């Protein structure tokens, strides 16, 4: 059973556009939602994260919007740049239980065209 | 930022052989993890390890799998014997504090079982 789902699977945008990546989850006990970014051949690295107490988390051009009732999140990247081209993974966990066990989505591959 | 190193980056072996994947976690981290990613799919949790013991493992962590970190050296994942379905990229991760859930990942070892 897939606990975390992401859409679209891949996305191509022009430089300067706003990118929207979607994520949804099943388990209502999840309370922490990090987004990881992975460049080809590199390690996945934490980009931005949100917890259940917030509806929105902003860090520069990256913003997470969180709809708790529908169990949906979205990552917005404003003024998308070619350097943002990577695979973005949404993840979820219950920090009160499993020891750091993250449930990952299958990722969205983003290509930003100059 | 903190780096997790994985050695080797690619390993090719014959089915039935033993393989050991090595991970050098961030030096002051206490919690260690292995995740498995089949091409095009999400990273899936295998196991976490703390204070010399497996704390939690998933159904994917078969009896043929074992982990250890002898004397603070490499954190290893051993598969004996290997099967064709073990072909995947294996990511090691470490964290300082499970509660914060900031996992730092290595670049992965691509295992090809022939």
What would you say this structure looks like, in words?
The complex is a heterodimer of chains A (114) and B (114). Chain A is mainly β and 114 residues long. Chain A contains no helices and eleven strands. Chain A has strands at residues 4-7, 10-14, 19-25, 32-38, 45-51, 56-59, 62-67, 72-77, 86-92, 103-104, 108-113. In chain A, strands 2, 4, 5, 9, 10 and 11 form a six-stranded mixed beta sheet that branches. Chain A has a five-stranded antiparallel beta sheet with strand order 1-3-8-7-6, with no helix packed on it. Chain B has a single domain, classed as Immunoglobulin-like (Sandwich). The model of chain B has no long low-confidence stretch (mean pLDDT 91). In chain B, a hairpin with a 2-residue loop joins strand 5 and strand 6. Chain B has no helices and eleven strands. Chains A and B meet through strand 4 and strand 10 of A and strand 4, strand 5 and strand 10 of B.
Give the total of domains of chain B. 1
Query: Between the first and last Cα atoms of chain A, what is the distance in angstroms?
Result: 38 Å
- The succession of helices and strands of chain A, N to C, reads EEEEEEEEEEE
* Structure summary, number of beta strands of chain A: 11
Percent of sequence in beta strands of chain B: over 45%
Give the structural class of chain A.
mainly beta
CATH topology of chain A: Immunoglobulin-like
Distance between the termini of chain B: 36 Å
Largest interface: A-B, 24 and 28 residues
Task: Please supply descriptive tags for the structure shown above.
heterodimer, A: 114 residues, mainly beta, Immunoglobulin-like, 6-stranded mixed sheet, 5-stranded antiparallel sheet, 11 strands, B: 114 residues, 7-stranded mixed sheet, 4-stranded antiparallel sheet
